[in-house]
Write a structure and sequence with these properties.
The protein is built from three helices and no strands. By secondary structure, it is mainly α. The longest helix has 29 residues.
């Protein structure tokens, strides 16, 4: 982001790359938890429901207007959610 300076296009590209990284972390943690909950359908269902609710809330919170989304907000919230899920994984 620092190298992008004030270039909106470069900042957008950086945000999209970071979102891809954070989304990969989130998906990996989610899949690990689903595997961890093997044999516990109630926990898997609860996690799936929680994740769907979180996605709706994130998208709502990061919406600027009907057509615009604050990408930096999406990145931040996705990273925070990945942190939350990673803390629940038992190694």
């Amino acid at each position: 982001m620092e190298r992008a300076h004030s270039s909106t296009v470069q900042q957008g590209m950086c945000e999209m790359k970071e979102l891809t990284n954070q989304d990969a972390r989130l998906n990996k943690a989610y899949q690990q938890l689903m595997q961890q909950y093997a044999g516990h359908d109630d926990k898997k269902t609860a996690l799936r429901t929680e994740e769907r609710s979180w996605l709706k809330k994130r998208d709502y919170d990061c919406k600027v207007d009907h057509e615009t989304v604050d990408d930096s907000c999406v990145v931040k919230k996705t990273a925070e959610r990945a942190d939350e899920l990673e803390k629940q994984i038992k190694f």
